[in-house]
Design brief:
By secondary structure, the protein is of the alpha/beta class. It is built from twelve helices and nine strands. Strands 6-5-7-8-9 form a five-stranded parallel sheet, sandwiched between helices. The chain has a two-stranded antiparallel sheet with strand order 1-2. A two-stranded antiparallel sheet has the order 3-4.
């Protein structure tokens, strides 16, 4: 005979397991981490463990033949749970990155945890003008202003002030680095240390932006920020570059601002590679065979298309040192941003009034 106290214990245990199942479910993980979207691997692992817990809860609450059926169900799903556990362990120690690395963030000087919500689509939106902008947010060393940019809000222009906007994708925007370590922030520091105290540099970078998006963003905020000069990194994956660079150059002439076009360096274009870069390059060559040939062709096309005196090839900007900079195919660490800023400084200074 089942006593009331034993049934109460069953209910308590089942309720506890239900709480655990909710916590490790995709919804629970999203609420805990702030990420709106989870990867396929995480979803599969999560749902497998939830399924096991549901089977255990059913076995605790059921009686007679139904309980026996629940135990059979547990026997069937336990192997799946073991596989999910192995996969979760591999995921926690980043086993895939160790065997076939595509990214290595150990090169970052400041290993501040990256805000989880910045991985998700909920961190940005499309404004009515067709420009991608970020939702206002501020955290430890990372901030997005009320206009949706990762830069300071516009202010009245000081007499003699020269304003520069750096547009680009995630490398300019500052993937995994703090605001102070982004290329625009480093560029302003280099210029002011060189005596250009009248220069202000704004970060117009947007993660994943194509050059068409960069141009749209410049048009959207040029007057708001009273921009005098713009640096447009020609994103290599947005071929054909020839037409886009021509369109951007035409707009810059019409708007009476100086625009310089800089070809973004990639790990494949660097001659001196060391540390984690070697392993990442090996994996990239397997996953994206002959991408180096494609990259070289796009560089050549962009150089031929761009204004002769205002198009710059940064393919080998990091070749003067063996220090590792690249976290993956295109993103670099703080030292890489500083090196790029120092290379950009004389180009920008040539246009400062």
């Amino acid at each position: 005979m089942v006593t009331r106290s034993s049934r109460l214990a069953d209910y308590i245990v089942a309720a506890g397991l239900a709480v655990v199942a909710l916590a490790i479910s995709p919804i629970g993980i999203q609420l805990a981490t702030g990420r709106a979207n989870l990867t396929f691997r995480v979803n599969v692992i999560s749902l497998t463990f939830v399924l096991v817990l549901i089977a255990v809860i059913a076995a605790i609450l059921a009686r007679g033949r139904l309980r026996r059926a629940c135990f059979y169900a547990i026997a069937w799903v336990v192997p799946l749970a073991l596989l999910a556990g192995i996969e979760a362990a591999a995921l926690s120690v980043r086993l895939a990155d160790r065997v076939t690395p595509l990214e290595d963030t150990s090169l970052l000087a400041r290993k501040t945890p990256w805000p989880g919500h910045l991985y998700s689509d909920s961190s940005y939106y499309w404004d009515p003008g067709g420009v991608i902008l970020y939702r206002p947010w501020q955290g430890a060393g990372i901030s997005f202003n009320a206009l949706g940019l990762r830069t300071a809000m516009p202010a009245p222009k000081a007499p003699g002030e020269w304003r520069i906007a750096v547009t680009g994708g995630s490398e300019v925007w500052g993937w995994r680095v703090l605001d102070a370590d982004t290329i625009p922030a480093q560029l302003q520091d280099v210029l002011r240390r060189a005596g250009h105290a009248n220069v202000t540099v704004y970060n117009f970078g947007i993660g994943g932006a194509s050059m068409q998006m960069e141009l749209a963003l410049l048009k959207r905020f040029r007057e708001t920020y009273a921009i005098d000069q713009d640096i447009l990194p020609a994103a290599l994956k947005t071929n054909p570059l020839r037409k886009v660079i021509a369109e951007a150059d035409d707009y810059c002439r019409t708007a009476a601002i100086r625009c310089d076009f800089v070809l973004q360096p990639m790990l494949f274009t660097r001659k001196t590679r060391s540390g984690p870069e070697v392993g990442i390059l090996t994996t990239l060559a397997r996953v994206y065979p002959r991408i180096d040939v494609l990259t070289t062709g796009l560089f050549r096309d962009a150089l031929a298309a761009g204004p002769t005196s205002r198009t710059y090839d940064f393919a080998h900007v990091y070749d003067q040192t063996s220090q590792p900079f690249f976290l993956d195919l295109i993103h670099t660490n703080e030292a890489g941003h500083r090196a790029a800023a120092e290379k950009l400084a004389p180009i920008v200074a040539d246009g400062v009034r």
